[in-house]
Amino acid sequence: MKRYKKVFLVSMCFMILGFTAACQQLDVIGSDALKSFQEVTNTVPDRIEADEMNGGWALTAPDDSVRFIWSKDFSKSPLHDVMLEFSAQPFLDAGLDTGKLPEEIVVYEDKIMVGTKLGEEAFTYRGDITPYASFEQIVRLKGDSIGYHTALDHYGIDLAGGNMFEWAKDMNTNDKDIVFVLNPEPFIEAGADPDKVEGWAFAKVPTMDKDGKKVEVDKLLKPFNLK
Length: 227
Hints:
Elements lengths: L5 H6 L14 H18 L4 E4 L4 E5 L5 E6 L10 E6 L1 H5 L12 E3 L2 E6 L14 H11 L4 E4 L4 E5 L5 E5 L9 E5 L2 H5 L11 E8 L5 E11 L3
Antiparallel strand pairs: 1-2, 2-3, 3-4, 4-6, 5-6, 7-8, 8-9, 9-10, 10-12, 11-12
Helix pairs in contact: 2-4
């Protein structure tokens, strides 16, 4: 699988920074992130559905290979509050031994799940419980998990472990409306060849560490244009 061109990867570098670089004030980020997230959900309503097993909502990628799932209520989430669930087959075909994955990566049936618990708070809704209303609760309670990067004009939510879900601030001017992001390291350590994971682009992303030193970090990326 070919790597993305470096010019694209430079613009993606914020994903490795934990949203600490080129950030606006958090309240501004949260407000604008909600508006753009609502635009995404309004654009693909047929791709969003309730996920009772995970106690939340799921946005399914156009190719059905991966889902972004977010909680309806932290106090009722059975496992994670925000997560990615994706098909295991491309990773198995690339040599993955699921028995060698760390315990925080969940494997069940033909799926793999990565995600994080954000809190234990119960959500209080003023109106209907909708996908947008639930995400609004997440941003209100855990706004520090949301970030913005000027170069790509994307918002994103940190799923821990180097994994993320991103969406365009303006879908009318961006050809990468949503991006699913995985840290390839645990999969590599469990035997997968990242260059052979069908449907995911293995990319070396230039960024800076906490000391401001330039480094490169590997990611597996799956972007989609929804319009």
